[in-house]
Amino acid sequence: xxxxxxxxxxxxxxxxxxxxDRLEMTLKAExxxxxxxxxxxxxxxxxxxxxxxxxNKHKFMNLALRYVSKRLKTEHETxxxxxxxxxxxxxxxxxxxxxxxxxxxxxxxxxxxxxxDHTSLSLYSKRKIMYELKKKQIxxxxxxxxxxxxxxxDLDNLKKIIKQKRQVSRYQDNLKLMQYLVRVGFNYQDVKExxxxxxxx
Length: 201
What we know:
Blueprint: E1 3-9, E2 14-19, E3 22-28, H1 29-35, H2 45-70, H3 75-85, H4 89-101, H5 107-120, H6 126-135, H7 140-148, H8 154-165, H9 174-183, H10 188-200
Antiparallel strand pairs: 1-2, 2-3
Helix pairs in contact: 2-3, 2-4, 3-4, 5-7, 8-10, 9-10
C-alpha cells in the first residue's frame, strides 16, 4: 500500500489521507507530524492500524482535555464521558493515567474544593456533603481524609442558617426549625446546641 496524497480539509487542521488513490482516513495535523506521513510513502496494514489507533487516542485525549478544562471533574465523571463518546476501556485507562500525571484529574483536590464550596457558600451539612460525594463514586477513604482535615464545623453553618431562617415566620417556631435542619442533614445534637446559642444571642 502507498500513500498517494494528503489533502487539507477546510480551514481546520484535518487532513484527508488517500492510500492507493482511495480515501482511507482523516487525521489531525499533529498525528501526521508525529508518525511522519508523507505522500508516496509505502505503508503496511499493521502500520495503518497503528496510525488509526494513535489518531483515536489524540481524538479522545482532546475531548477529555476540553471536558476537564471547563470545571473540576471527578475520575468517575470523566470515565463516563469518554465511554459515552465511544472510547474503549483500554484507551480510557490510558487517558485517565495521563490526565492524572498532568494533575487535571485529582479526586482528592475535587473533594477538598467541594467541601469548601458547599460548607462556606451553600452551607450544607457534612452529612449531606458526604452523601453527595458518595453519589459521585468517589472513594470513601478520600472523602474521610478530607473531612478529617477540614476545620469548618456544622455548628458554624447552623448558626448562619438559623439566622437566615428566623426571617421566615414559620421558622420562628424552634420545633419547626429543628425539624427542617435535621431533615436537610444536620446532626440532632448540633441543631439543639445551635438553637440554644441562637436563643441566648
